[in-house]
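Appendix B, Record 12. Input sequence as logged:
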Amino acid sequence: MEKIRYLLLLTLIALTSSLVASAYDPSPLQDFCVAINNPVDGVFVNGKFCKDPKQVKADDFFYPGLNKPGNTAATPLGFAVTPVAVDQLAGLNTLGISFARLDFAPYGLNPPHTHPRGTEILVVVEGSLFVGFVASNQNNNTLFTKVLNPGDVFVFPIGQIHFQLNVGEGKAFAFAGLSSQNPGVITIANAVFGSKPPIRVDLLAKAFQVDKSVINYLQKQFS
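Logged structural output:
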């Protein structure tokens, strides 16, 4: 348990240090802006209304349960994420950070995806993860990869396509900090082959330089 606490503290310190140097979300102009869904008597700030400061409580800045693993059996990828963004923790509103727990079954995969509004810093707590990201066209789509073990940290720059794969025979989990209260996520395969309505088959066949039957098959998998 002490090991987990130490790794979590390490992640938070590293994330906080990077945010002090350069935060992506706008800097707040008040002590806090606890998000509320009810606009009555609220002030609209950065996508959320602010709760009256006189009604703010300690629970507005509290989220329990990251000691519990996510259900990796719920998807065929063997992966589960427990997010702590502004929708889960109202006190994060305007603060420019969020957090997540990532759980992996043996050989579980967090597939290629991107966070359009946040850099991610990840620390492995248990197991071994093969992680990496692909740079943009500007940098020749260079792939950067590493195998991470407990205590290892890796950074995924904002907007870059990245992934994590459990390469161990047992379970694995990690904590991730992100430099946005709502970093967003775009899973590449879901977006390309599972869009609603679907992207034209002939367009995707030409883009990926494959037969239309391949695109039809992939769209059925993600429909």
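The longest strand covers residues 98-104.
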